[in-house]
Predict the 3D structure of the following.
Amino acid sequence: QEFSMSAAPGPSRQNIVDRPLGKGRQDFVSQSAFSHLFSEFVQYCQAKASTASELERKLEDAGATIGVRVLELVNLRDGKTRRETRMLGMLQYVHTTLWKALFGKAADGLEKVVENEDEFMISENEPLVNQFISVPSNLPNLNCAAFVAGIIRGALESAGFPGSVTAHTVTLDTGAQRTVFLVKFTPEVLAREKSISGA
Amino acid sequence: LAPRAAMSGGRILSLYINNKSGGLIYQRNFAPSAATLRDNDHMMLASTFNSIALILKELAPVGGSRPLQTLEANGFVLWSYDSPTNLKLFMLAEPGTQGLDLLLKSVYGLYTDYVLKNPFYELDMPVHCAKFDDRLMRLLADFTR
């Protein structure tokens, strides 16, 4: 007897990789699904790391590969024909356009660090990835948004702005907590920025 | 998630959550009149409650009964909810409090969000999740209003 592998009749859906790329405006993923997946990923990294910093580093590295891809995709969808060459322009692109593509809204703040020329801060009051995560008291400095810091780093590096991006938990006067992503560009980026604006 | 119209005030005294093996994983008192016991006593009472609920289910004269749902006493009412995964959530409240079945379902909803999606929570272990506590207090504050 013949055994057929064809799908049962019903709404025909192509294989997901054959479907055309969406416009990006209606493509949403269930937050529950993402949260469970992210939770498992954090546990996976935690099993391989011995300290909180190592765990954050692993999350960052995972985010970096995503950042590279997200930048390409968002540039394509945005129809961008000119790339950013200035630090502030690129940071604003991350703060607004990239954030909207990833989280459905712009980041809550973008500030320059006064003391250091090469440092900037992107702040987010309640990072989406941390929505359901309560960090235990024995890991006080851990912030799983290190994953998002990695995404920022990957996107910036891929755009020609190498540097380090780290996630920090900041407690406000009101007692509430927010996450601040500290972006520190390499000296080369700073030198290039100076030569562009100087000339 | 919380259908506020169906819930009405009345004070909630305490909440207990048992894992599927009957072990206590969460206990919280919300009113000064709730019983203040040591942790061990809470655990013993909670697992005893599991056994009682199971025995009552077996003893029920009508076949196919579900486990204990409500218990009314002079000083309090007790409402219990069993999740599809055999988690038992039960609450003690002042007599005459309405809407506890919906409230318990909302608490279960909070559990599935702020406990189960937390990578630092180990399944069936005691619950120590700050966000769960926060949301729970908020839910109860809304309920008692």
Summary: The longest strand of chain A covers residues 163-171. Chain A touches chain B at residues 32, 35-36, 38-40, 42-43, 46, 131-137, 139, 144 (CB under 8 Å). The helical segments of chain A are 31-48, 52-78, 87-103, 146-158, 187-198.
